[in-house]
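Backbone-to-sequence.
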């Protein structure tokens, strides 16, 4: 009967479970059975893009789930620093099969991009390092170095903290030619060595206007700033001392950031020709003034001719301020009146 068969089946199951070497029954649907020691780990790709630290690509760089012995196996050469290696789906499938890994690409376009961990030595990096070395050799001179190869860019194996060195540095003072060997990474037996060349220039600080200056405008100290220029770019007439520009008037419009030649400025005209002036006679314990007319134009310190309006005499005086001329005491100015303070 049905009842008899059910009882027999139950008894058989109990006896089987108790028997030596018996195995557990499969887990019921929806129930997760515990993973036994040494159970199978699925094989999968590490990532679509990987970075390796060595010159070799190992199985563990590409696949997860391989045993320790297989994982350490080298399967390809890593690309040079700055380059990329593409491992396509057929290559990945062949490599997995060769090393006993149960893996197949899910898409024929599946691939892994491999690159070597590296750092970059740029043109600017080399120029700054060379500038410091040459400045030390040239007793602290302000210098700038220009590498002739404007596209220079060196990828070296290592992490972001990697450094480089310059070796066999030479500098010709006459031609200003500079040469050196870039070593990256520094102090490495497997370092790349690249020869570079360029020119080194001594620099000089030159005062220039901060802003456009109009013709006739008088320059003040806060109108000026300094810029660094190559020595061979600075013409002999360029003014290097800002004190020689302060208080001067622009002969023409001056552009911001451009050097100023001596001919571009002049002492400001404080007295114009035919303009009325105050004539000052300065003597010990006495100061007299009178009115006059300028026969010449002049700036601070210029000696010009003037006519005394009262005596009609022409005398010479020194321009000391706007519309004011200082004369030496003599009889022709007897009609001058005391100055009103």
């Amino acid at each position: 009967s049905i009842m008899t068969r059910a009882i027999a089946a139950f008894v058989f199951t109990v006896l089987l479970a108790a028997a030596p070497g018996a195995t557990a029954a499969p887990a019921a649907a929806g129930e997760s059975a515990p993973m036994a020691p040494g159970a199978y780990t699925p094989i999968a790709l590490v990532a679509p893009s990987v970075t390796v630290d060595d010159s070799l690509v190992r199985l563990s760089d590409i696949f997860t789930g391989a045993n320790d012995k297989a994982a350490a196996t080298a399967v390809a050469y890593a690309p040079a620093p700055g380059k990329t290696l593409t491992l396509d789906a057929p290559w990945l499938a062949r490599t997995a099969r060769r090393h006993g890994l149960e893996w197949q690409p899910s898409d024929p376009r599946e691939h892994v991009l491999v690159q070597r961990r590296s750092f970059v030595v740029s043109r600017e990096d080399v120029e700054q390092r060379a500038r410091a070395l040459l400045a030390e050799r040239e007793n602290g001179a302000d210098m700038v170095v220009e590498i002739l190869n404007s596209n220079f860019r060196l990828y070296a194996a290592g992490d972001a903290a990697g450094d480089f060195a310059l070796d066999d540095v030479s500098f010709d003072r006459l031609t200003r030619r500079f040469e050196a060997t870039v070593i990256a990474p520094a102090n490495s037996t497997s370092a790349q060595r690249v020869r570079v060349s360029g020119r080194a220039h001594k620099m000089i600080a030159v005062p220039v206007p901060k802003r456009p200056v109009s013709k006739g405008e008088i320059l003040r100290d806060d109108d000026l700033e300094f810029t660094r220029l190559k020595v061979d770019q600075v013409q002999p007439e360029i003014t290097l001392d800002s004190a020689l520009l302060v208080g001067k008037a622009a002969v023409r419009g001056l552009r911001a950031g451009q050097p100023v030649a001596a001919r571009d400025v002049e002492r400001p005209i404080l007295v114009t020709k035919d303009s009325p002036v105050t004539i000052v006679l300065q003597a010990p314990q006495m100061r007299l003034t009178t009115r006059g007319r300028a026969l010449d134009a002049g700036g601070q310190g210029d000696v010009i001719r003037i006519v005394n309006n009262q005596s009609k005499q022409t005398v010479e005086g020194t321009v000391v301020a706007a519309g004011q001329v200082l004369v030496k005491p003599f009889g022709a100015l007897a009609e001058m009146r005391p100055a009103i303070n």
